[in-house]
Automatic annotation (TrEMBL):
Protein name: Abscisic acid receptor PYL8
Localization per Swiss-Prot or TrEMBL: Cytoplasm; Nucleus
Keywords recorded for this protein, A-Z: Abscisic acid signaling pathway, Cytoplasm, Nucleus, Protein phosphatase inhibitor, Receptor
InterPro entries in the record: Plant_def-hormone_signal (IPR050279), Polyketide_cyclase/dehydratase (IPR019587), START-like_dom_sf (IPR023393)
GO terms under biological process: abscisic acid-activated signaling pathway
Pfam families listed in its UniProt record: Polyketide_cyc2 (PF10604)
GO MF annotation terms: abscisic acid binding; protein phosphatase inhibitor activity; signaling receptor activity
GO CC annotation, single: nucleus
Transmembrane segments annotated in the record for this chain: none
Annotated family: Belongs to the PYR/PYL/RCAR abscisic acid intracellular receptor family.
Length: 208
């Protein structure tokens, strides 16, 4: 089931902490803890895996308030604001709602030129965005992703934990590990860029 702003906010259980390694930067993996409960995240990041598919997730800690980060992530019609590999995005029929489809042009240098993507879910209460690739010139067949953002405190200041999970077909001639490594590398670049954009906006707001 897909929905926009559906249901009440579900608070994560207070019992238990999940140790999350920030896969973007191995130097920051030491004993990073978040109050986002692991079972709560698993409920949000559920993929119905089919045969010959792989799935994984990446994390990123961002030194910017959660509402600012979410304001960038939720713009299904403007992924180029933080995704460095996208040169152009056009939403079909100009509508932005569940089932909306966007046509994305990919910058040269990647094994892809275009991607057709459908908005599966957008929930402002849980700050969750789900997208499925439905066409295009690339190797990510039956790719779906779920991205959530969660408030946290970083160095005594409001910060954000971003979690992005995915499921995708394993191409012929590739292994589970090879496929996940490739996809996670792309997602890590996206989340690194998201952090850079978000933190620059914070710096501008704080400038005299």
């Amino acid at each position: 089931m897909v929905e926009v702003n559906g249901g009440a906010v579900v608070a994560p259980p207070v019992s238990g902490l999940w140790r999350l390694a920030d896969e973007m930067d191995s130097s920051s993996t030491e004993d990073r803890l978040t109050s986002v409960d692991s079972e709560y995240l698993r409920r949000l990041h559920q993929h119905d895996l089919r045969e010959n598919q792989c799935s994984s997730m990446v994390f990123k800690h961002i030194k910017a308030p959660v509402n600012l980060v979410w304001s960038l992530v939720r713009r299904f019609d403007q992924p180029e604001k933080y995704k460095p590999f996208i040169s152009r995005c056009v939403v079909q029929n100009g509508n932005l709602e569940i089932g909306s489809v966007r046509e994305v042009n990919v910058k040269s240098g990647l094994p892809a030129t275009t991607s057709t993507e459908r908005l599966e879910k957008l929930d402002d209460n849980q700050r969750l965005l789900s997208v499925k690739i439905v066409g295009g010139d690339h190797r990510l067949k039956n790719y779906s992703s779920i991205l959530t953002v969660h408030p946290e405190i970083i160095d005594g200041q409001p910060g954000t934990l971003v979690v992005e999970s995915f499921a995708v077909d394993i191409p012929d001639g590739n292994t589970d590990d090879e496929t996940c490594f490739f996809v996670k590398a792309l997602l890590k670049c996206n989340l690194k860029s998201l952090a850079d954009v978000s933190e620059r906006l914070v710096s501008k707001e704080m400038a005299p």
